[in-house]
Amino acid sequence: GRHEGASKVVIDLERLEQLPGDELGAVQRFARSIQQQRGDYNGRVLSIRADDLRTLAIVFDVSPAGLIEKLTEWNVLVATPIRP
Ligand code: C2E
Ligand code: C2E
Ligand code: C2E
User: Fold this and answer.
1) Residue 54, ligand 1, Cβ within 6 A
2) For residue 36, what pLDDT is reported?
3) Which ipTM value was assigned to this complex?
4) What pLDDT sits at residue 1?
């Protein structure tokens, strides 16, 4: 399937909120809206749907891999939690 081999994208919310809004404001707003939809306010991290990452990449005019790279540069991603 399309998700095969893809590891889970997990955002460090504390780190994200520390970053300048002019650069990653869209990601900050996106994360807040997902928290709201899930009622998931107390986490330090947030797992993101692969489909949503694709959409978010369009906002930044990069490929999904390009967005991952950008988020990695900003140190926003948590190392994928150990899978059972
Ligand atoms: P929904 O898509 O109909 O999902 C209903 C519930 O199924 C979710 O309630 C969640 O408990 C579970 N669920 C769905 N997909 C997954 C998944 O990939 N992993 C896990 N662990 N659980 C899943 P929840 O979290 O309260 O979300 C309520 C609604 O809010 C969702 O209804 C969806 O419409 C929206 N939503 C929540 N998170 C996201 C997101 O990351 N992206 C998008 N596009 N919508 C989201
Ligand atoms: P945790 O909450 O103790 O969950 C451990 C593992 O149980 C998760 O590993 C996942 O495989 C499973 N799990 C927990 N809740 C659900 C659920 O509602 N639906 C499904 N299908 N599986 C569930 P995972 O995903 O690798 O996450 C590791 C840890 O990272 C979690 O530990 C949690 O502390 C944190 N985390 C990851 N994503 C989120 C997120 O979107 N929101 C919050 N608040 N915490 C998250
Ligand atoms: P994915 O769609 O790429 O979602 C990646 C992770 O984002 C999920 O890992 C979960 O931690 C989080 N997530 C996504 N949507 C929701 C949501 O609506 N509510 C909450 N609380 N968390 C969400 P997880 O749970 O380990 O699922 C791995 C993959 O399994 C998902 O990748 C998706 O492809 C599939 N999946 C799991 N549950 C459902 C579901 O209820 N409906 C659908 N259509 N696919 C699901």
Assistant:
1) no
2) 97
3) 0.85
4) 43
Query: Which position has the token pair 């994360």?
Result: 31
Compute the 3-state secondary structure of the chain and give helix, strand, coil in percent, each to the nearest 5: 50, 10, 35
Amino acid at 61: D
Q: Which of 41, 47, 68, 82 to mutate to test the pocket of ligand 3 (most atoms within 8 A of CB)?
A: 47
The answer to whether the CB of 9 falls within 8 A of the CB of 81 is no
pLDDT score, position 84: 55
Rounded to the nearest angstrom, the distance between the alpha carbon of 49 and the centre of ligand 3 is 6
Q: Which residue, judged by its Cα, is nearest atom 43 of ligand 3?
A: 49
Tell me the pLDDT tens digit for each residue of 1-30.
455 455 789 999 999 999 998 889 999 999
Determine the topology of domain 9-73 in CATH: Arc Repressor Mutant, subunit A (1.10.10)
Distance from C-alpha of 63 to C-alpha of 66, rounded to nearest angstrom? 5
